[in-house]
Amino acid sequence: MNKKNKRVAMIGLGAMGTALAESLLKDKIEIHIWNRSPNKTEALEQKGVSTHLKPHNAIELCDLVVICLSNYDAWKVIVDDEKTQTSLKNKTVVQLSTGSMTEVEDNSLVMKNLGAELIEGSILCFPEQIGTERASIILAGKSRLIKCHESILKIMSPKISYLGESITAPVVLANAIMSSVLGFSFGLINGAAFCLNGNVPLEAFKEQTIHNFARMQTEPVRILDSILSNDTISTQASVSTWFDAHKKLLKISEKLGVDKKFHTGLNLVLKDAIDNDLGDHDISSIIKTFSK
């Protein structure tokens, strides 16, 4: 369907919702907006969007409905309204709110019962990146829906990752990415605490971190390739090697007065892998203890 013939309803105007709306505005898409706090719509109103006092007023005018709320509870309040339920019939809903697997599954059933088509998604970038090549939106749903609305979806994120028809795939992948980001970030901050307590200049830590960027970019790919190929035996540093090295982290944490909770957890994971006869395997073999 040609994007020029489309009207898009936007439900929710937080930082991310606003960024999504602005990206569509740049492409001269007709947008109808509802937000719980009307004052947040003023700037976009001046740019040509139509604002509405009730969600159903925006939805009933559009083919495509983009939901970007802080959580599914906020959406549930909206969709419990009878007029909203009626307005959703035969619409395609792109759900980009943050939710759990159970909330995603429950919402899928609600949309089906109301006669709405559903594209489930997650946003894996910052608001300022929306509409640019750095944007990342992952989606799941019927392939014909993605194809039908592709022209609009690609305005918000030129690179769309389609995960198939499993409606919970985006929330699983989003949390997988969150796990990897948090693991790296916590380790980085913990290392900074070592330096601060050990009288090592943070500039030196920063310099070495930058120097190691190349390895830090290739190592995650190597680990994932090992898991994909099911080859967790080939290694240059076994789980036992990492376990022995990690013991030193616990000792230096205690010596420097750095909280040990982060490394206590890692120690338990490494020990669990060794107890499961993975000591001679690559660190990628820990997937077997996580997935058991």
Question: What does this entry look like structurally?
Answer:
This protein has 292 residues and is α/β, with parallel strands linked by helices. It has two domains: 3-165, Rossmann fold; 172-290, Orthogonal Bundle (N-(1-d-carboxylethyl)-l-norvaline Dehydrogenase, domain 2), CATH 1.10.1040.10. It is 53% helix and 12% strand. It is built from 14 helices and eight strands. It has helices at residues 15-26, 42-46, 55-59, 72-79, 82-87, 101-114, 143-148, 150-156, 169-197, 202-211, 213-229, 239-256, 261-275, 287-290; strands at 7-11, 30-34, 50-51, 64-67, 92-95, 117-123, 137-140, 160-162. The protein has an eight-stranded mixed sheet with strand order 3-2-1-4-5-6-7-8, with helices on both faces. Helix 12 (239-256) runs antiparallel to helix 13 (261-275). The longest helix is centred in the middle third of the chain and has 29 residues, at 169-197. It is elongated and about 65 Å long. The protein starts with 6 loop residues before the first strand and ends with a helix. The relative contact order is 0.08. The mean pLDDT is 93.
Give me a quick take on this structure:
The chain is of the alpha/beta class and 292 residues long. Helices cover 53% and strands 12% of the residues. The chain folds into two domains: 3-165, Rossmann fold; 172-290, N-(1-d-carboxylethyl)-l-norvaline Dehydrogenase, domain 2, CATH 1.10.1040.10.
